[in-house]
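Exercise 7.
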Amino acid sequence: MHFAAVAYVGESTLHPLKYYHNITSNTLTVLEAMSAHGVPTLIYSSTCATYGEPEKMPITEETPQLPINPYGKAKKMAEDIILDFHKNSNMAVMILRYFNVIGSDPEGRLGEAPRPELREHGRISGACYDAARGILPDLKVRGTDYKTTDGTCIRDYIDVTDLVDAHVKALEKSRPGKVGIYNVGTGRGRSVKEFVEACKAATGVPIKVDFLPRRPGDYAEVFSDPTKIKLELNWTAKHTDLQESLQVAWRWQKSHLNGYGSSLVKSS
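Solution. The predicted structure, written as tokens, is:
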């Protein structure tokens, strides 16, 4: 299972070579090593960013891939390399295109802790928690003039626990010589404003919000059609209560104030 990648849209527009090297070039290296040593199965972590900003919603696996930022382009290139390699290989391949991942391990073992220098490029969930913890003075929402119901971006938020389950199902269903490509999402879009309100409720903190201009490389609306993965892998997202997913992640944040650093603080 190949998860390793840099994964921030904003950062990819500033440092594209870092993204092409880390995602595309390194995936090529992984494939070469797998081929050399006869590793029979690859489950690849891809992204809905490979679709860019499609004209029609929801996004199916047949939606044209027209990425609009280096992150999405690098992931699509990696997919293309995998598929070209597979034409003359008996490897079992599964490509999972994630939508926007949120949440934490419910048992509290794992959570999201990006490096401090990545905070300005980070996901909205991390920014919400940083604002709730007082690390940041406010939550910066970038873009309020999109053609959506409330002017903010719409995304399909998938809980990491459901994502883990999708990988297990993909591994079980993988077959030599076969390729499976699947969207992993809930099939429902939520606006950034809706997300922020859920985060306020989950943390119990009246987070101050600062509305700013759009971020380069972002798109207005992205959500999945998860029909294929349901039919072929018998997978459906179960953790679809946004506030509940954010509460689980917030518990981890409060008990790991230094992320994976040595100083851990127990929370009540």
